[in-house]
Structure formats: C-alpha cells, structure tokens
Design a protein that fits this description.
This is Membrane associated serine protease, rhomboid family. This protein has 251 residues and is an all-alpha fold. The protein has one domain: Rhomboid-like (Rhomboid-like fold, Up-down Bundle). Helix content is 58%, strand content 0%. The chain is built from ten helices and no strands. The longest helix has 22 residues. The N terminus and C terminus are likely disordered.
Length: 251
C-alpha cells in the first residue's frame, strides 16, 4: 500500500518575537528623543520641535527666520523622523516599524536597512515639499520611512505566500525571491494594496487621520515613502533570487 510522505522543512524552533537589533535600536532612539523633549520647558520644546521638524517654508526663503536656521535646512530632512507629536504617534509608528521593519531589516541587514529607511523618509519629505512648497507647518515623525518599509516588503510578501513559505517572512526573509519592479507593477494584488494605501492617506484631505488635537497626517510623506520603498528596494536588496521552489509531495 503506497504511503504519502510530505517532504517539508525541518522544524526550527525560532522565537515568536524575532526583532533585529537595528530595529530595536531605532525605536530606542525615538523613545529617547521623545523622553528628552518631554523634560524641556515649553519655550525650549517649541524651539527644538521647529528646529528638528521638516518645514517647507525653509526652502522658500524663510530658513534664516526659523529655529535652526540654515543648519536645519540641511539636517531636518532626517531629524524630522526623530520627533513625534505625542505618545500615541510614537507607539503607532513603533508598532508598524516592528511589523514591517523587522522583516525588511532581516532581509537587508542593519546597514542597508538604515540607509533604505533614511532615504525613504527623505523622499517622503521631498514629496511633501512638492505639494506644499511654502507651508509653515512642521512635519514630524518616522511615518515616511515606515511607509517605505511597507512598500519594500510588498516586493517579496506575495512571492512568499505564493510559494507556501509565509513562515520565511519571520524566519529567513532573505530566502524569498523578490519580484522584479516590472512584475510588481503588474501584480494585481500589489496594485490593490497600493491603491488602498493611497486611498486611506487621501482621507486626510477631508479631515480624517488626526493624532488627537496635535495635527493631521502628512499623507504626502506617506505616499512618497511608500513609492520609494516599492520602486527602490532592488537598489538595496542583496538577497539571493534563485532559491529552489518548495519540495513537492511524494506519493
């Protein structure tokens, strides 16, 4: 009587929470900055918030009149990612970074992950500047960088599910072959996810998406970061792209 034997992977007892050190370090820095600013006087808090924030008006001739001056016109492309409106904003971004950043960091490695994240945040700020060239309102938070992480993960999320290897997203993301950019842009699932992401962010235009009374979501920064992640993953990805398909069942 023939026996059906399933040839599968060896069971590897991995921890439930497998967070790379680089992701934990980034979250620790965000918490430290938030804690440090909470001890400032109201006047000092406002000065540092504006000095670290990304303010489009800096680039329309007002850099010298804003806290931080010309120095902040250079540094705020990155420093705005370190500051959060309140604890809710910080916790929300940290949770999404744990979800998407952990997978992406495990695939790219700490150094490339950090470069990818910074570049994603910068691209988010750039798109915000394009849409709001003279705005005086400060833009803060790591949401642009986190949106880039989401866009990057899209390139190998569905291949893992198609191969029946979703477990690799937790155990070894680098073993998942990523979609080429051409394939990703023609994948209906990625198109639907991207359209949903855009629609959710555009709701901010009509008043949705506030963190309490602190301010609205900078949807342009989210979209800019997401598009960067989706389009640019290949420039940072060094994972093998030729892993064999899953072993078939034998009868």
């Amino acid at each position: 009587m023939p026996h059906r034997i399933k040839v599968g992977r060896l069971v590897n007892r991995e921890p439930i929470f497998n967070v790379p050190g680089a992701v934990l370090a980034i979250i620790a820095v965000l918490i430290a900055v938030h804690a440090a600013m909470s001890f400032l006087t109201p006047d000092d808090f406002t000065w540092w918030l504006l000095a670290l924030a990304f303010i489009p008006a800096r680039y329309s001739g007002l850099a010298g009149e804003l806290p931080g001056g010309d120095v902040s016109a250079v540094t705020s492309w990155m420093t705005h990612m370190l500051v959060h409106a309140d604890m809710t904003h910080l916790v929300f971004n940290s949770a999404w970074m744990l979800a998407f950043g952990s997978v992406l960091c495990a695939r790219l490695g700490g150094g490339r992950f950090l470069a990818f994240s910074i570049a994603g945040g910068v691209c988010g700020a750039l798109l915000f500047l394009v849409f709001n060239p003279e705005m005086l309102a400060p833009v803060i938070g790591a949401s642009g960088a986190i949106s880039a992480m989401m866009g990057g993960v899209m390139r190998f999320l569905f291949p893992a599910l198609d191969r029946g290897e979703g477990y690799l997203l937790r155990e070894r993301p680098s073993a998942i072959p990523a979609l080429t950019l051409r394939s990703a842009l023609n994948d209906r699932r990625i198109i639907l996810v991207s359209a949903a992401f855009l629609a959710i962010n555009l709701l901010a235009i009509i008043g949705f998406g506030k963190f309490g009374e602190e301010g609205e979501i900078a949807w342009e920064a989210h979209v800019g970061g997401y598009l960067f992640g989706l389009f640019a993953l290949g420039a940072f990805d060094r994972a093998a792209q030729n892993d064999p398909p899953p072993s078939p069942d034998l009868d």
